[in-house]
Amino acid sequence: MFFAFNYNYPAYIVFAIFLAYLVVLVVGFSFHEAAHAFVATKEGDMTPKAYGRLTLNPAKHIDPLGFVMLLVVGFGYAKPVPVNPYNFRRGRLSDFLVSSAGIFTNLLFALFFGLLWSVFEVFAPAAIFSNNFFSVFLQVLLQYGMLINISLALFNLLPIPPLDGYRMLSAAMGQKGREFRQFMEKYSFVFMIVLAVFVMFGFNFIGRAAFGIQDGIIWVFEKFFGLFV
């Protein structure tokens, strides 16, 4: 049973929903970017630390315009972490690891929230299915915690500059992908506009895929915990 928003909800429920959504967005974006910075420093590049990005402080990672866009139209961005790939100890491998760190972190968070959701649903359903502020906040926090982190991971897997998927693919291809990189960098803005239009007009293939993955995570965890009741 998943939470469905209704405009007739009392103010305290609307506030709980908004607060949970805000918390998940801030955490998801902050940890995503901090993961890039952390892995970059481990791979020998101190650029993120020099720019103050080796932190979980949301103010260092969240772009105001990108965050407002995300709240309003469901399509936004954070500040990219500056890195210097020439400082990496292991060249293309380091570049690939740094680029994939944010995606990997979001997927871990999605699994974590899915685990918590399944624990509550199997062992303490009243905690997330009661009609009070804390219950609604917890329910929406766990649901959005899965959905938004999965969506962030899927979105960043797209091979469009400056997304992580493009950087991962570029690192894997090396010099062989020069023409591909030139093409993608030349038309990246067009691809982003087309993607934004698709999302705004309801063709949100990333959201649909995220719901499917979310359902799969819950199914696995609930089957496992169901063995103990």
Explain how this protein is built.
The model has no long low-confidence stretch (mean pLDDT 89). The chain is mainly α. The chain has one domain (11-228). 33% of the residues are buried. The chain is built from 10 helices and no strands.
Q: In a nutshell, what does this entry contain?
A:
The chain is an all-alpha fold. It has helices at 11-42, 47-50, 58-61, 64-73, 92-123, 126-129, 133-157, 164-173, 178-200, 205-225.
Return Rg in Å. Answer: 19 Å
Note the run of SSEs as H and E: HHHHHHHHHH
Number of helices: 10
Total of domains = 1
Basic shape: globular
- As residue ranges, the low-confidence spans are none
Q: Give the fraction of residues assigned to helices.
A: over 70%
What about the largest sheet?
Answer: none
Measured by DSSP, the beta-strand proportion falls in under 5%
Beginning-to-end CA distance, first to last residue: 19 Å
Mean pLDDT: 89
The total beta strand count reads 0
By secondary-structure content and strand pairing, the structural class works out as mainly alpha
Question: Descriptors for this entry?
Answer:
229 residues, mainly alpha, 72% helix, globular
